[in-house]
Predict the 3D structure of the following.
Amino acid sequence: MSLHDDLHTLDGDVFVSPRHLASSTFTGDPALTPLLDHGWDLQHDDLGNVYVNSPDRRVRLGYLPEGEDDGLWRINAHKDPFGPPTWGVCFNDRVPTEFVQAFTTALATAYEQGPDAYLARPVTGIHEHDPFLAVVPLLQQGWEIDRPRWGVFAVQAPDGLAGMEFTTGDLDPEAELTTRDARWQLWAGKSIDRPVWYATASTDTPVALLTAVTQCVADPAPLPRWRQDTLSYIEGMAQLTPIVPPQPPAPTPLDVQRAAASRRPAALPAASVPRWSTTSRPALPGPRR
């Protein structure tokens, strides 16, 4: 959301910057809409959890406010609808909703392109599928390369309050889908060990989907939030700037002319103008003595 957008449409009274220090808006609609607009099926259980399936049932999203952990969003893709997931992504309950929406928007596009897009495995050295592409948007905004520990490539935000890690080597496929021990992890907070929000992606998650998220994270424009809703941003870390209502447009020359005319005193009515009578003449002054 740009500072130049119509401020009347913003859902908030403050801008949060940098945007990785915002948090969830606590409504799933914006992130569900891109899939529902493409004909995906929505169901829900008695607890209020929502499940969205692609038409071929090969891609599934769960929005799980009543789930077993803080993994609010879980998205899996399958080569075989009845087989294990090919890749899985998780966003916890504090991830800015705009970042999830960026992912689901890219997912809807990839699904329309077919399995070669939404099941495309990352391949080092292949331009469109090189994992490094997912990091480029962050580097372009000043994030710095880091080597926090052996076997991990990372980039860190300029303020040190967000990062993205890529773990090398062999990983447990099941653990990637159910824990934070995944190939990719994006986070914000004081450290990756104590993140306020985090997102994980397994080894075979398509690079285009990851890049859609990092492009959204790297966008320098702030995000609108409500000051009193302190859970909608990372309190004590985020910079809050009041959203100032737009000023009225400068008056045109015609506006100035009309305003001046409205202030001009009205002419006296004709009945109040003194006139000489047609039947009498005014008395002439007498001679001076």
Observations:
- The CA atoms of residues 270 and 276 lie 14 Å apart.
